[in-house]
Write a structure and sequence with these properties.
three-stranded mixed beta sheet, alpha/beta, nine-stranded mixed beta sheet
Length: about 350
């Protein structure tokens, strides 16, 4: 029997600064800019640099969804530092649009006072006609930061509705990756997809892969992430996707997952310190090594490079991967063991 063709896998990174609880505690906390992506300890990056080094060691490209509304506080130049570091690491990396509406509160120079009394909303869903104006603002910032308009969009918190897709369509953005059933379940049933792409208003929605995890209290729905999914489960899901031809498999991670921050209440964000998370770092290393060694079965790609092929599978029947019964318990034991080891 002939071998199956390689299955597309996309490692996606939400590249965003740290709002650092400042909307809830504005008197004591301050957002952290590019330093929250670097996450330096003794001159070594346990954030963006760690991700880029790990991918580079195995020659793997990734898609970085760069959050742009933070430029209202930090300016375009500081966000460009992040983009420049990604580009310098490997020209095959893909840079696309990410936006959290909560950063728009920092348009007000007096935000420390005004955020105390307002009702905050960080969701793209439920905006109605406002979604178009917000998307136009996001695209304008992205173009200023990156130097070209985006091909793909990811909403903050993976909250999305058809008004967002309509805005993307009107503004010429053909791809979205704003569905992740393990984080937010869209109200629109047509968007409730585990893994298979679908179209809305002509926009191709490529979900962050989700799966079911059995547990003592019933089934839990999870997104396929580096921080929330053990390596054995990630590998099993990739093997399942390859055998059943379900893809592309979109995996989600953030720079903040590879270390923890301490002293975040510091008045000077530059004084915030970071402690590496060896468990989560090891998971990314295991994934990268696996994909690097399994190129005949898995094609690690990006949204820009893979979009043409993904259009052909839009509307295909969706499918669900179910993790092994004791996966959740095994993950908790693994986390507990690493915490005991310090």
């Amino acid at each position: 029997m002939s071998a199956l063709p390689p299955l597309d896998v996309c490692i996606s990174i939400d590249a965003e600064f740290d709002i650092n609880h400042s909307l809830g505690q504005p008197d004591s906390h301050t957002p952290i800019g590019f330093a929250s992506m670097q996450r330096l300890l003794d001159g070594k990056s346990h954030g963006l640099g760690f991700i880029l080094d790990t991918l580079g060691a195995h020659g793997l490209p990734a898609t970085f969804f760069v959050e742009v509304f933070c430029a209202h506080l930090f300016g375009v130049g500081e966000v460009q530092q992040m983009v420049q570091e990604i580009r310098a690491a490997d020209s095959s990396h893909d840079i696309q649009l990410h936006a959290h509406p909560c950063w728009r509160y920092f348009r007000d120079p007096d935000w420390r006072r005004t955020v105390k009394t307002m009702r905050k909303n960080d969701s793209w869903a439920g905006r109605g006609a406002e979604a178009l104006a917000m998307m136009r603002e996001a695209i304008g910032l992205f173009s200023a930061i990156v130097g070209q308009p985006p091909l793909a969009f990811r909403s903050g918190n993976l909250q999305v509705d058809t008004d967002v897709h309509a805005a993307l369509a009107q503004l010429g953005v053909p791809l979205s990756s704003s569905v992740g059933l393990g984080l937010t379940r869209p109200d629109d049933a047509t968007l409730q997809r585990w893994i298979a792409p679908t179209r809305q208003h002509g926009v191709l929605e490529v979900p962050v892969a989700a799966y079911a995890e059995p547990g003592l209290r019933g089934e839990r729905v999870k997104c396929l992430t580096i921080t929330g999914t053990s390596w054995p489960v990630t590998r099993r899901m990739l093997e399942w996707a390859y055998r059943t031809r379900n893809g592309p498999v979109v995996i989600l991670t953030h720079a903040s997952e590879f270390s923890s921050s301490i002293n975040t209440e510091q008045g000077d964000p530059a004084q915030v310190a970071y402690r590496p998370n060896p468990l989560v770092q090891r998971r990314l290393q295991q994934l990268a090594e696996f994909l690097g060694n399994q190129r005949q079965r898995f094609h690690t790609t990006t949204f820009r490079a893979g979009s043409a092929a993904w259009q052909a599978v839009a509307g295909r029947a969706d499918a669900r991967f179910i993790a092994p019964r004791h996966a959740g318990l095994a993950r908790m034991l693994e986390t507990g063991w690493m915490q005991l080891r310090g």
